[in-house]
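for the writeup, i need someone to sanity check this before i put it in the appendix. the sequnce is what the collaborator sent (i think, or maybe the updated version? ugh). structure was predicted straight from it, no edits. if anything looks off just tell me and ill rerun, i have time this weekend
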Amino acid sequence: MNNFILKHYKIFSFLLGSLCVQALPPFYHWYLLFICFSGVLLFINRASSYRQAFHCGYWFGFGYFAFGLGWIHNALLIEPAQTGWLIPIVFLAAGGFLGLFIGIPALLTHYSKNFPAKYLSLAAWITIFEWLRSWILTGFPWNLFGTCLTFNLELIQTASLWGTYGLSWLTIIIASAPAIWLHHKNSKNLIITICLCGILPVFVFVYGHYRIKNLENSQLSQITFRLVQPNISQRIKWSPEFKQKHFKDYIDLSNQQPLQNIDMVIWGETASPYALDKDKFALQQIKQAIPPTGYLTTGQIRYADDYYGGWKAYNSSLIINNKGTIEDFYDKSHLVPFGEYIPLREWLPDFIKPVANIIGTLKQGNGHKVIKLNSLPSIGLLICYEIIFPHHIFKAHEKPQILINLTNDSWYGISSGPYQHFISAKLRAVEEGITIVRSAGSGISGLIDFKGKVLAQTALSQKAVLDITLPQQLAITTLYNTVGNILILTICILTLIISHFLCNKMQQNKK
């Protein structure tokens, strides 16, 4: 590295993090990862202090998260007069806060006093902090580095062993390997770099290929679902004058083809503008969209008495049978902070309260449950954001045969957000070994099997009706579903132990 780059390392770290966004879905310029991670590792290695090492990682993370979450800005433009001014604040907040989850690992990496140890430490610490990111302040594990591998089905099969965090560790180990040779250009380091950058991915690919081949699941069942995606703009979704029209659009699309051979019609998140558990007229209307011997699943806002004379509102999904009876329901249990509720709302400064009042105050549900219906596989329901959390779904002993994910990505328009949301469902399918049916009011709807193979999908923000026939085998047991994050956290700890051993050994050799 020349002196100019080293002098302006913060700017170049920021640029590397911003460039790294191009490796994410839907862009998949994966080769940029080698530049980005090797570059930031070399910066950290040249850092003269813990503070400088922290800044290398922090500004890398700032660029990565500020631009990687740029799709959030579309949601702020739904009501531009009221929330448009927040766009620069959200940009700075996303980078400023989430940048810590790269900055702190970089600081901890500086503790390793030689380059091989720093190479191993960086992968371990970033992976550990990705895991922490899924918990802190209710969690936000969006754009994990492992998602960069989802362009290839074979490369993500190891997620069934160690989850997406394991894919992140693998991605960083491979992508930062060129720095080994760039740090000290000799034949030994060149061989190590070639092995890590070339041979290691081949082993991962071969494992994935044989796993897919051994789990071939081409036979179809007799169960058919109909996914209804009307692509309603968020600007008018809740307008009173359009409420009946949107409801009718859902019903008409559901009847676009005969319903006789359909087992379940599935609408998206908050698809029904009416509280079907209280509005008997709307419940009678919706019977037109229910198969004669099947069910309809829809999202809605559900209201319940709060025992104090008021009402609690839930983001819910209801399953309704052909007689118009609500068979069961699920209340979303992992809410979106600053989207579905505002933490510490009463403590907000006065200038932000008009904006805060736009955001609803939804209540948290009681957790996941398995729903069993006559003649259908056991079902688990997840709403929108809940699908992004690795190993926060169903435990092995209570696992359903199929997951139905209702969502509405109209908030994010034509952007990378809906693609990345869909990819989250793909990774959960591999990790948990379960078939996922995804119905989006707007966004991408589809069917994903337990290997993560997309069997059917709509285009982004397309008005569409998609009939899907389920595979005969819907779920399998995976190591990740059984043990969760224990394996990858153990690997990270072992990586740090090896790193510490390398530090001590090289210090002894110097003596």
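The first helix runs from residue 3 to 7. Residues 3-214+484-510 form one domain.
thx in advance!!
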